[in-house]
Amino acid sequence: MARQARAIQTRRTILEAAGEVFDERGYDAATIAEILGRAGVTKGALYFHFTSKEDLARGVLGEALTTEGVLPQDSKLQEWVDVGMVLAHRLPQEPLLRASITLSADRHARALLGTSWPGWIDYLADMLQQAKDQGELLPHIDPQETAVLFVGAWTGVEVVNSAIDGGRLETKIAALYDHVLPGIAVPGVLGRLDTAADRGARMWRAHRRSGGSDAPATGG
């Protein structure tokens, strides 16, 4: 068991180091040597877990679809908002998550590796369908189409905000929700949604207080 735990930790250490390097350098300029230096592991340890730089990049992309910190809400539309707000809170602090966007936005890497976007689209479309089934969305809203548009918009906001050093990502993503929600939400639901810029931070703190479990959040 101890050996297995060490192997899991080593793999995580390698992925986090790779995330830092891919985020800073991009896929083409990243090297195994630099990743090894960041991770502080041997070449043998790295190749035990990953067969190549391409395999390592796929591992980074595999970590992208995370909803850790998103706590169950009675309103599925609020929970949908929380997914994007928690991610906006976590992204500046977690190079592994940032790297998934860097790799997905890189045309060459995207052609080679694919992206994390289809997984996000499917997840968010399913959540929007649940919100629609609960009567929270306007009748004409197509959950799949909305998810595609929103993933594109969220990613675009993050990329542009990073490129122009536009300040806190959470503020920009909150503004994105404030622009999108009036066009998809039933008016009676819209007024109850929490899209404050600190929503993600509050949800993350509640998640951590719960010990990382999926206990319900207070409020929302």
Automatic annotation (TrEMBL):
Note the InterPro entries from the entry: ArpA-like (IPR047923), DNA-bd_HTH_TetR-type_CS (IPR023772), Homeodomain-like_sf (IPR009057), HTH-type_TetR-like_transc_reg (IPR050109), HTH_TetR (IPR001647), Tet_transcr_reg_TetR-rel_C_sf (IPR036271)
Q: Which PROSITE patterns match?
A: HTH_TETR_1, HTH_TETR_2
Q: Which SUPFAM superfamilies match?
A: Homeodomain-like, Tetracyclin repressor-like, C-terminal domain
Which NCBIfam families does this UniProt record tie to the protein? ScbR_bind_reg
Gene Ontology molecular-function annotations? DNA-binding transcription factor activity; transcription cis-regulatory region binding
**Keyword Transcription regulation belongs to the record:** yes
Q: What is this protein called?
A: TetR/AcrR family transcriptional regulator
What residues are annotated to bind DNA? 31-50
Asked if the keyword Methyltransferase belongs to this entry, the reply reads no
Q: Keywords assigned by UniProt?
A: DNA-binding, Transcription, Transcription regulation
What Pfam families is this protein classified in? Answer: TetR_N
Domain HTH tetR-type spans what residues? 8-68
